[in-house]
Design a protein that fits this description.
Elements: H1 3-16, E1 20-23, H2 27-39, E2 45-48, H3 51-61, E3 65-69, H4 78-89, E4 94-99, H5 104-113, E5 117-120, H6 125-136, H7 144-156, H8 167-177, H9 182-189, H10 193-207, H11 212-221
Parallel strand pairs: 1-2, 1-3, 3-4, 4-5
């Protein structure tokens, strides 16, 4: 088969599967995605810059595929919420999530919410298109390393919610439970403010909570001092 014929057939198949909705709060990402998929022969590309408008666009146009980021602003759960709502409205919708987090727990939660695939935002164009094509065809897609780590987690994880958190996240969670603000936590752990916000969003994703208040409640419900801070003020790493 010639390269030209293969491209033509791939584009025809793409058109037959319907449009794609991309949801991301970065205009450059939206523009780049549109350019990529139009080259692949997708005729209908819908865009949204936040979760609310993303659901509205989906509700109106019902595209067959949704590609969504997971984090919007400081809300680490927005992408999961959108995935669940889309699948509730149209169970056959094929969803690919992409994220800056390479954490297998987060990837597992994405699949539990109803997505078919998960890919990192810093992946190569060729890998992203491979993931997108797999999801559009109704196949699951996970990077090999993340898939392996999810399998390991399934074998060895205990069922404590805190088993999902790494050492840095446990430190931040403990400090939240002590009533510290993001700014205070950043100072205590020698981090920048955005890193604290980003890590807190990742924790909310892992633990499946919808608000900072719920996260603090989890921190307060855990026995003992799990902060890793001998005097509550000096980081170990």
């Amino acid at each position: 088969m010639s390269a030209g014929l293969a491209i033509t057939q791939r584009r025809a198949a793409a058109s037959a599967r319907g449009g794609i909705l991309i949801v991301d709060d970065h205009p450059v990402v939206l523009q780049g995605f549109r350019q990529l998929v139009e080259v692949e022969g997708v005729a209908e590309v819908f865009e949204a810059g936040d979760i609310v408008s993303g659901y509205r666009v989906f509700h109106r146009h019902r595209p067959g595929v949704v590609v969504t980021d997971l984090s919007f602003g400081e809300d680490g759960l927005s992408g999961l919420s959108l995935i669940r709502r889309v699948r509730a409205l149209e169970p056959a919708t094929r969803i690919l999530a992409f994220s800056m987090y390479d954490d297998p727990v987060i990837a597992a939660r994405v699949l539990e919410a109803g997505a078919l695939g998960f890919v990192m935002k810093d992946t190569s164009v060729s890998v992203f298109l491979e993931a997108l094509e797999a999801v559009r065809a109704g196949r699951g897609y996970l990077p090999h390393a993340i898939a392996t780590n999810i399998a390991i987690l399934d074998l060895v994880a205990d069922r404590s919610p805190l088993s999902r958190l790494n050492a840095r996240e446990l430190q931040i969670l403990a400090l939240l439970g002590k009533g510290k603000t993001y700014t205070e936590i950043a100072r205590i752990l020698t981090l920048n403010y955005r890193s604290v916000v980003s890590t807190t969003s990742a924790m909310r994703l892992k633990l499946g909570v919808g608000s900072l208040a719920e996260l603090i409640h989890i921190a307060l419900s855990q026995p003992g001092d799990r902060s890793g801070l001998p005097d509550g003020s000096k980081p170990l790493f």
